[in-house]
Design a protein that fits this description.
The chain has about 280 residues and is of the alpha/beta class. About 35% of the residues lie in helices and about 15% in strands. The longest helix has 19 residues. The two termini are about 30 Å apart.
């Protein structure tokens, strides 16, 4: 029985390599994960991937965000884009494709950032045709129902222009403390931390050099993008930085995976099942 469980366990975490080694060099092996020293996380939380619990509600939608907050989720990751007319809105994909959405056929394949306000208003995210594409301002307004919930903003097509526009809206809505901006570029992270220290930043890092840069910039969160080592976790915890790992994919978004990484110091898992993973 024990041998069978061990084989299942190893198979599950070998599947993780598809996620955590993709796009990284050198390729990680299973023993690299297992060799990470066991240690307690600084915090224990879960981030709702795309703001949704994936329980029949469209991701990046107001109903999904409200449902997550009502069920006690404190951090909700959403995807932010900026249209050519300057509006900030939530949407994951780069263009209108597939059967998950309903929209006029003349919009099929059109980049979402090129949609006008009127065209975005014709897109429906649900089969009933009731849920539309929300603006960032509308998403921020959902936080008023909670004293502690915050949005984690994944800037799609990350740029200085998009970052500046997001920070402007957060200031206008008095929501700087209720949003965490997710950034990849080390120079951009350092610049925004210098210009506006009140901005909360999650740095997505792929290696130790980027991690050191993020620590030097005094970010609040670090996402170890497809990798984890004991040294990386220790460096973050020494600097009082929350360690995040994204496991939001069907093969490995399980309790066993969450606990495997939490036992190795990961503070927060980004998951499609944030209520169960809290």
């Amino acid at each position: 029985m024990l041998r069978a469980l061990e084989r299942v366990r190893r198979y599950t975490f070998v599947s993780l390599l598809t996620l955590f080694s993709y796009g990284c060099a050198p390729t990680l092996e299973i023993h690299d994960f297992e060799s990470v020293p066991l240690q307690k996380p600084l915090h224990r939380s879960a981030i709702a991937h795309r703001g949704s619990l994936h329980e029949g509600l469209p991701d990046n939608s107001i109903p999904a965000i409200k449902d997550s907050i009502a069920k006690g989720v404190q951090f909700l990751e959403v995807d932010v884009r900026r249209s050519t007319d300057g509006e900030l809105f939530l949407f994951h994909d780069g263009s209108l494709q597939g059967s998950n959405f309903s929209f006029p056929q003349d919009l099929l394949g059109k980049p979402v950032q090129e949609l006008s306000t009127g065209e975005r208003g014709k897109v429906r995210l649900d089969a009933a045709g009731l849920v539309g594409i929300p603006t960032l301002k509308e998403a921020l307004a959902t936080l008023d129902a909670s004293k502690t919930a915050a949005l984690q903003l994944d800037l799609k097509g990350e740029s200085d222009q998009l970052l500046n526009a997001v920070v402007k809206v957060l200031k206008e809505q008095n929501k700087l403390s209720r949003a965490v901006i997710q950034l990849k570029n080390p120079e951009r992270i350092l610049r925004i931390r210098s210009q506006e220290p009140r901005v909360r930043v999650l740095a997505r890092v792929r290696n130790m050099k980027q991690l050191d840069q993020a620590i030097a910039a005094k970010v609040e969160f670090v996402e170890l993008e497809r990798w984890i080592t004991g040294e990386a976790v220790n460096k973050c915890h020494t600097a009082k930085i929350v360690v995040v790992l994204n496991v939001a994919a069907p093969k490995y978004d399980t309790k066993e995976t969450w606990e495997f990484f939490r036992a190795r110091g990961v503070d927060s898992v980004m998951t499609n099942h944030a209520v169960m993973a809290r």
